Amino acid sequence: MSEIRQNKLTGEWVIIAPERAKRGGNLRQPGEAVPVPSYVATCPFCPGNEVDASDERFYVNDQTGNWALRSVINKFSVLSGSGELAPATESTVCGESVNGVGLHEVLVETRQHDLLPAFYPVEHVAQLVEAYRHRFHAFYQDPRVRHVIVFKNHGADAGASQQHPHSQIVGIPIVPGQVVERIERSRRFLEETGLCLACTIIAEERTQASRIIAENERFVAFIPYAALSPYHLWIFPKDHAACFSTESVETWKALSQILHLVLTKVYGLLGNAPFNLVIRALGPREAEAPHFHWYVSLVPRVNKIAGFELGTGMYVNPSSPEDRAQALRSAG
Ligand SMILES: [Zn+2]
Ligand SMILES: [Zn+2]
């Protein structure tokens, strides 16, 4: 029989139904190695084509003086970087609106078109983490920005429109409903118990240990108790902190190390599977917030979302989180 679990941090419900995997068809096959060239003349992110993505806001050079990674204004930004944030221009029974100002950058992660994140040297993951931190922090200096999201879509099935490895940073002039809801959940837990919900979950996960994937001095990676999909995993700092950009150098170094390890493990098990990576954190002004605990979410896109999920907000996970954690723990 399946089991219905609730994720306490997100409020989401999921049907854990490992026997469903036997049905077939629901799970994508592990990503296959489709040959990709290391350079594509028409790619706007490949070296030599910088003019196609020229509005540069951040870069790191390699030892030869060439850029190693760079962040540029997204040419197809969902928000406009110029203009003031205007209050609701209209508010009707159908909804309200503000003008779409905000910031949207694309972070070109490497010069090499075909380099998979699982093959980044750990030093390069550290540069990537530093770029995330830098842009996250800079975005929050814009008074129009209320919430910043750092994310990565890897593979077309995870929403990537460009093959060249890249991440995105978006500064939004509102706090999205899902984010507000999760902050409120954690705030209520703090009011009721005096504790941070995530700190409590981390302690419980470490005690149970059955869903832990990897740990280092400062971080723990695990599959949540109510994972929405197979291999859906979280990386949490062990010490309480609400904001990721105000952490210490040692913490970012430890994050790079565990992220590198987790990407290697996911690749070892799933090959070049599509995935989404998201950093969920409050801004520097709320760094001391006792109720929110920042984290990284990594979701390999191995199962398909269909009408049931859209219609209920519930998910069906055709695997056991404990079983999948065990597989990732032993993956190389
Ligand atoms: Zn390219
Ligand atoms: Zn905490």
Describe this protein's structure.
The structure is a single chain. This protein has 6 helices and 15 strands. The model has no long low-confidence stretch (mean pLDDT 92). It starts with a strand and ends with a helix. A hairpin with a 5-residue loop joins strand 3 (56-61) and strand 4 (67-73). The protein has one domain: 2-Layer Sandwich (HIT family, subunit A), CATH 3.30.428. The strands form 3 sheets. It has a 10-stranded antiparallel beta sheet with strand order 3-4-7-9-8-13-14-12-11-10, sandwiched between helices. Strands 1-2-15 form a 3-stranded mixed beta sheet. A two-stranded antiparallel ribbon has the order 5-6. With 332 residues, the chain is an alpha+beta fold. Bound molecules: zinc ion (2 copies). One zinc ion (ZN) is lined by residues 40, 43, 45-46, 113, 164. One zinc ion is lined by residues 40, 43, 45-46, 113, 164.
